[in-house]
């Protein structure tokens, strides 16, 4: 079985997908981390993120592993645990840039399909149900109001001791939504056969239970 979960930033898809995969005994793949890893490698190499040929080469050579651990998951790039480094705003902004490049998306889409070819996988991102696995067994599209997604991000950053402005974060989320929905390659859209999960007023556990119920325990075997 392949479970595809798509949705915008802050909709809860990553957290829920990770827990759903754990409870089903499936492998969890965060495709957003793959684009972040490309941006991270490119920055370290001094490559210009808008140089599509250079970034495509970085993507082609990407060696990334997703390893389950008690804290959730380790992300290893070229033998280095880069989980915390991929969460920076700089890397996130860079990921948005490289994700709009057709060559990079093709390379990473091929890699994602290879990762999921054996099934028993929960893969989340922005184009899984529409581009990567259009024939996935179960598809979900997560959404939440931009204001709620902004509050979640604000709380996350504040907990880390960062000085942030809520309104600025909400504006950034709206801007990223527009970029994702209007890009020419693999835009963020809900697949016609994807089940909608609105997490605006749902807690994490509520969302997890809803997804597992919609998958069905028999189907997940």
Question: Any chance you could write out the topology, listing elements then pairs?
Answer:
Elements: E1 2-6, H1 13-24, E2 27-30, H2 31-45, H3 52-60, E3 64-69, E4 72-77, E5 80-81, H4 89-98, H5 102-116, E6 121-125, H6 128-132, E7 138-143, H7 146-159, H8 166-182, E8 195-198, H9 204-215
Parallel strand pairs: 1-6, 1-7, 2-6, 7-8
Antiparallel strand pairs: 3-4, 4-5
Helix pairs in contact: 1-9, 2-3, 2-4, 3-5, 7-8
Overview of this structure, please?
The protein contains nine helices and eight strands. The protein is of the alpha/beta class and 221 residues long. The protein has two domains: 111 residues, Rossmann fold (3-Layer(aba) Sandwich); 92 residues, 3-Layer(aba) Sandwich (Rossmann fold). A five-stranded parallel β-sheet has the order 2-6-1-7-8, with helices on both faces. A hairpin with a 2-residue loop joins strand 4 and strand 5. The longest helix is centred in the C-terminal third of the chain and has 17 residues. It is globular.
List keywords for this structure.
221 residues, Rossmann fold, 49% helix, alpha/beta, 2 domains, 3-stranded antiparallel beta sheet, globular
Question: TL;DR of this structure?
Answer:
The chain is α/β, with parallel strands linked by helices and 221 residues long. It is 49% helix and 17% strand.
